[in-house]
Amino acid sequence: MSDPTNRLAPVVRLAPAKLNLTLAIVGPRPDGYHALHSVVVPLGLTDRLSFAPATGGRDTLHVAGRDAGPIAENLVLHAIAATRRAVGTRSPGPAGTPPPLAVRLEKRIPVAAGLGGGSSDAAAAIDGALEAWGAELEPAERLALAIGLGSDVPFFLAGGPALIEGRGERVTSLAPLRGEPPGVLLVTPAVAVRTPDVFAAWASGIRPPGACAARASSEHLAAELRAGLSGTDLVRRSAVLAAANDLLSATLALVPELVAFRRALARLLGRPIGQSGSGPTCLVLYPSLVEAAAAADLVREALGAGRLPRLGMDDPAIEPTTIAAGPGAKAASDSTMIREE
Predict the structure, then answer these.
(1) Which of the following is catalytic: 47, 127, 152, 246?
(2) CATH of 183-322, one of 3.30.70.890, 1.25.10.10, 3.10.180.10, 1.10.3720.10
(3) Is 127 among the catalytic positions?
(4) pTM for this one?
(5) Pairing between strand 101-107 and 60-65?
(6) Could you give the CA distance from residue 330 to residue 35 in angstroms, rounded to a whole number?
(7) Which CATH class is domain 4-174?
(8) What are the domain boundaries of the chain?
(9) What interhelical angle do 75-87 and 117-133 show, nearest 10?
(10) Residue of 18, 59, 121, 246 marked catalytic
(11) Strand pairing partners for 171?
């Protein structure tokens, strides 16, 4: 392996957003987390990370685009530090230790939106740092790193649609959608919703009517994807999927203004409005990216005309994108953790 300090070009990784098509809470766990059953897909909306040797003695991070919060708290730096510890002296750098990296993060995924942007950045940082150092880790070692960084991070090691169970550490790869990728319109109001607060509200009893309805929808969708589901058929299930999120009621209780926003958005678009993860992102499925982009223009026009309420100080983030097929899950030595269907 060559010395990573002599690389002529930076290492680049794209970090996709994720979409919870379903999110069922199975129940509390002894470790304080909640057990989930969730069908998750990667999106075409991505952040971009570039890795190069740092000139100083420590890792650095520069963020362009959306505000990602304090640099010192960014998961990219935590992921690089954890990867360095895992690699140990297996890197060909000076003194046998991985050298410091300078990372540029071009942030496009809305932050604290239920889209997993920070977790995706962390997974991309693990992979990018390893290539920049010319080092390798076994799949089980990568998985252990991901679990230590956050519950959403293991999904991004799968590389495609997956069933997520446990608190996020059990990832089972599912078949990609057949045919043209569905379009997705993401509308993220400018309000902060902390995931721990949403789970706490759910635990306090703020839950949707119809016990186990989201679980049944999630299991059914996972079975359909295993059997081979087309993008067209997925879009036809929009109304069912829009209700298949056990956290929606808790999110709306924490941010009551979202109720009027979602209703106005539904009247404007005439389609079911879902929520990814703990929100506040509203999601709308379309047969194609072209139709999702046309809907995005309609939302922008409505905002300008005052037909949609504004939440917070800024306009909502409006992102038309697609569900990405992905290359399928990477193999892991522990088949109970990341599995291929």
Answers:
(1) 152
(2) 3.30.70.890
(3) no
(4) 0.90
(5) parallel
(6) 23
(7) alpha beta
(8) 4-174, 183-322
(9) 40
(10) 18
(11) 164, 338
